[in-house]
Every structure is written in C-alpha cells, then in structure tokens.
Amino acid sequence: MAGSLDDRKSTGGMAFYLDENLITWVSQKQRCVALSSCEAEFMAATAAACQAIWLQRLLSHVTDVKPGPVTLYIDNRSAVDLARNPVFHGRSKHIDLRYHFIRDCVEQGLIVIKHVSTNEQRADILTKALAVAKFEKMRSLLGVRELGDV
Fold it and tell me: What one-character-per-residue DSSP string does 42-102 give?
C-alpha cells in the first residue's frame, strides 16, 4: 500500500494460470490513492477480475469451450469480505463505483473469491521488495525457474 513515495499510489500485481501453467502476469500502479490496505487490495482484485474475464472470453473463443468461474486469491480478509458482500458498506462508500464491478462478477458466478495466506500470495513478488528467501519462494510458487534449473 502507498508504495510510491512520489504520489502514494499502491502497486497491484496479478498472475494467471491455465492448468497450473503461468500464462500471464502484470504489475501495475493503481490509478488512485487507496485510503487503506483493504481498499488497495479491493482495487487490485477488481483489476484482476477484469483481466480474468477478458482471458476467459479469449480462451472460450479460441477453444470453443465454455469455461467455469475464475478463482481469485486475495490475502486481505477485509477485501475478501468487501468483494463477496453486495451490501453497500459505509466503509466502502468512498471507493469509486468502477471498483465494485467485482461484486457483480461474484454474484453472476464468473469469479470465485478465496482467501490465501500472505505467505502463499504469489503476486507479492510483483508488488513489493522481498527478502531473498521470500523472493526465491515466491519465484518458485510462480513456477519461474533459474536458467540452470531447466
């Protein structure tokens, strides 16, 4: 959260898999300043939902197979609750409406939200500096290997 010292905007990251194979990833500065870690994670989850639905439609068009729902793993319990609950909370009324798109996706069954431990959140490698041991663990979880390991 607020990783940029210049404008205090957070960086969101996502990685997408198809049958356990990493097919795309992105690390991107968020468009607006988040007021809490929950909000930053919620905004990142919404961006991931948009990308996931686009990928889902592309794969469906290419393979002519109707895919099931996409599972998004979020490591912030408050953001998970916010994404799952369609009730407009007082704590989220300041969040721009475009970020509530994820709630519609969950209600329609396009997206399934699951909580994941911060220690297992693969996208962390895309959003922040990590100690060497955690970096190597996240790199391994992503499925990226060193050239000598191939």
Answer: HHHHHHHHHHHHHHHHHHHHHH-----PEEEEES-HHHHHHHH--S--GGGTTS-GGGGHH
Confidence at residue 42, expressed as pLDDT on a 0 to 100 scale: 82
Tokens for 30, please give them: 């968020």
Q: How far apart are CA 98 and CA 120, in angstroms?
A: 28
Cα dist from 14 to 11, 17, 45, 48, 88, whole Å = 10, 10, 9, 6, 26
105-37-27-121 Cα dihedral, nearest 10 degrees: -80
**CB-based contact 141:82 (threshold 8 Å):** no
The Cα–Cα gap between 118 and 133 comes to 15
- CB-CB neighbours of 12 under 10 Å: 24
Q: What is the pLDDT of residues 6-55, one digit of tens each?
A: 666 778 788 898 888 888 888 777 766 766 777 778 888 888 898 999 99
